[in-house]
Amino acid sequence: MNDSNQFNCSIKKIATQHICHNFHSTIEFIGRRWMGLIVFTLLKGPKRYFELLEEIPGISDRLLTERLKELEKEGLIEKKILNSTPRKVEYELTAAGKNLEEVIFSLLKWINENRKTNIE
Amino acid sequence: MNDSNQFNCSIKKIATQHICHNFHSTIEFIGRRWMGLIVFTLLKGPKRYFELLEEIPGISDRLLTERLKELEKEGLIEKKILNSTPRKVEYELTAAGKNLEEVIFSLLKWINENRKTNIE
Predict the structure, then answer these.
(1) What is the pLDDT of residues A56-82, one digit of tens each?
(2) What pLDDT shows up at residue B80?
(3) Are A68 and A91 in contact, with CB atoms under 8 Å apart?
(4) Which residue blocks in chain B are alpha helix, DSSP H?
(5) Is the bond preceding residue A57 a cis peptide, omega within 30 degrees?
(6) Which of A31, A49, A59, B73 is least surrounded by Cβ atoms within 10 Å, i.e. has the fewest?
(7) Which of A56, A12, A108, A101 shows the shortest CA–CA distance to B17?
(8) What is the pLDDT of residues B81-92, one digit of tens each?
(9) CB proximity A85 to B under 8 Å
(10) Which chain A residues are closer than 8 Å to B73 by Cβ?
(11) Is A112–B37 a contact, with Cβ atoms under 8 angstroms apart?
């Protein structure tokens, strides 16, 4: 974290200093390459690794693995070990991860109402 | 744009194919380094270049210039030429830019309710 955390937030009075400190890092975390689409895909329910690869065409093995580790480290997803042989693993959003639905929904709404063309 | 635009959105039924195509690029645009804080700062009102530099400690000249160009190109900010000598310029959010307040607000709300520690 850096000096930008000194940023003085006042938006809508819900932004305490603690939230300010978090805003900068959180928006850039969610905006990391592919991060948004991974969360979006997991909002539909738990997925196995290969299912995520299939549903997000264009993502590389390396970046999917990296993003899943970052999401797990920040407590936004959990690995579920399925009771099967061979052992199978699913990735599932935690409660905090699922709550991102509202943020994603407001972004989709903004796009719907404000963008006629793609952002490049 | 790449293959991820084939992604099949269904969230809350507001996501048409057009919006889907835009989601991936938009979330990564807003999550670019410093982009969130620049929009956040401009939500308080029009700012001159040096004011933005002052209010966002840690941002470099190069990145602030680059981000302002990107925001202008996407129609989210406008340059206002002030009637003064020497000529002064202010950066102001367009209507679409101002509408991002709701997205930022929902992210602040999410942080407030879901994060006790900073995302790293």
Answers:
(1) 988 999 999 999 999 999 999 999 998
(2) 95
(3) yes
(4) 17-30, 35-42, 49-55, 61-73, 95-98, 100-114
(5) no
(6) B73
(7) A108
(8) 988 888 899 999
(9) no
(10) 120
(11) no
